[in-house]
Amino acid sequence: MCDREVALAFLKSSMQMVKRVVEVLMEDVGVRLEEERMNSLMGTKMVNMNYYPTCPSPELTIGVGRHSDMGMLTVLLQDGIGGLYVRLDNGDWAEIPPLNGALVINVGDTLQILSNGKYKSAEHRVRTTNIGSRVSVPIFTAPNPSEKIGPLPQVVKRDGVARYKELLFQDYMNNFFSQPHDGKKSLDFARAD
Ligand SMILES: O=C(O)CCC(=O)C(=O)O
Ligand SMILES: [Fe+2]
Q: Where does the chain cross the membrane (predicted)?
């Protein structure tokens, strides 16, 4: 296989896997999404290729500032260098060590909104290192821009409250990209008043 075929095969198998993971997560909150709705919720796919050069003084730089991803799930392939951290409930940062053959899966803001807060988007950041340059390849899955997102009715019924309002994903995305990363502040835009 040439590089292009390898990349396409990675994208295709990641999409199948991500869809299955979303199905399982939804089943766990008592929701079975129609095929069409599922495709609309995962209709935007984006692949980034991140390159972080070796840095002699990592403490003086920011690789990627703390943020959560805006979509449903992100599948991330990282090389062996390390530098990805996730924020724990107690506020500490834990490194996600590279494991040969493993992918990192991050919950995004949209899944937090749909699940009415049951699934929390992962706040994460990247620090550069002085041991070598690093490459990572995240695949982001997110709704179509014209898709309405909001807590799923079945979950709201069970929780007795909607913690987020309904909005167009396009508006969420515009707000997300309109300001610099600041942890999970992006979610404030969707919070119910
Ligand atoms: O490079 C990484 O490990 C993560 C990059 C990231 O968080 C992003 O592109 O959203
Ligand atoms: Fe990210």
A: none
Q: How much distance in Å is there from the Cα of 69 to the middle of ligand 2?
A: 5
- The answer, yes or no, to whether any atom of ligand 1 lies below 6 A from the CB of 122, is no
Write the pLDDT tens digit of every residue in 43-75.
999 999 999 999 999 999 889 999 999 999 999
Please state the pTM of the whole predicted model.
Answer: 0.94
Query: At 5, is the secondary structure helix, strand, or coil?
Result: helix
The listed CATH number (3.90.1150.10, 3.30.420.140, 2.40.50.180, 2.60.120.330) that belongs to domain 3-111+118-143: 2.60.120.330
Q: Give the tens place of pLDDT for each residue, 132-154.
A: 999 999 999 999 999 999 999 99
Q: Give yes or no for residue 68 CB within 6 A of ligand 1.
A: no
Nearest to 83 by CA among 123, 14, 140, 131: 131
Give the ipTM of the model, two decimals please.
Answer: 0.99
- Cβ–ligand 1 distance for 70 under 6 Å, the answer no
pLDDT in tens, 9-33: 878 888 899 999 999 999 999 999 9
Q: How far is the CA of 146 from the centre of ligand 2 (A)?
A: 23
> Which residues keep their CB under 5 angstroms from ion ligand 2?
69
- Asked if residues 57 and 154 have their Cβ atoms less than 8 Å apart, the reply is no
Those residues with Cβ within 8 angstroms of residue 2's Cβ, 6 or more apart along the chain or in another chain: none
Domain ranges of the chain: 3-111+118-143
